[in-house]
Amino acid sequence: MQALVLEKTRQLSIREIEIHETPGPHDVRIAIHTVGICGSDVHYYEHGAIGPFVVKEPMILGHEASGTVVEVGSEVKNLKVGDRVCMEPGIPDPNSQATRLGKYNLDPAVTFWATPPIHGVIRPTVVHPANFTFRIPDNVSFAEGAMVEPLAVGMHSVNKAQVKPGDVAIVLGAGPIGMLTALAALAGGCSQIIITDVQQPKLDLAATLGPITPVNVKKQSLADVASDLTDGWGADIVFECSGNEQAAAAVFESLCPGGCVVYVGMPGAPIAYDVVAAQIKEARVEHVFRYAHVYPRALALMGSGRLDVKPLITDKFAFQESIEAFDFACNMPPASVKAQIELPQ
Ligand SMILES: [Zn+2]
Asked: Which pTM was predicted?
């Protein structure tokens, strides 16, 4: 099949690659429609590795995908041919201890699309477990369906934070994950969000998405804005979505006493952690790694109109333009949030 293949660092090709997949009784085959480009895809393209995951052999990129079911295994009950779906890219070992505990995202044996050596899905079809394939509501497009994967990170973060109605949250970083976390936090009951970044166009867009106060930390003090908006008390939750060393080091500054910090972004290296600042507030600190059990809820929110990801889908490319799409994503203009690739149907 024709696929977008990362041959090695900085070298992509659109070419024929042999993939032989036969659906088992509990699998479906999906014709891929749309695939979002994720920061991790770009990172593999530019650097050939993320932490311990190193690209050693040619690998198909892409893991934020939607499509149409074209074949179902004999035991599949929840899906039929023609269903529009999106997929969780991580497949855990169903018998692992992590999976049995319900924490399947933490299964050390999980395989995840476009994480070496597992192929991604910028290709015509993929075979996938029906259990990790979810029907998209009729009023939700394939493009929106392909946003469920990054949205799931935000949903999982909001679950970890245990948002209560009326909470005020700070989101550090207005990249795709920061914006989607803000939307998930609002849908989960937050009354308002303060979002930070250094790119003004991203903040301007964020401000149109709901009760969201943008703070350009190049010009404004987050501590001042947060203090003003909360009568000096601080925010109930801080979602650290920037992965930025400086931002991440100051997570406790604008947190309210007894508040919760959720580390979502992945810093490139170990960062400072102010234990005393956390202690004085008895901060609760959570971490997220991908997500579990949130796809159906994300799709339900999108289907009901309570959560709209469309404004974040800023750039579209055809499959034949995939290499341009990746070069675009490497140097994303500040007004762009999510670029997606559409496969020929
Ligand atoms: Zn992603």
From this structure: 0.97
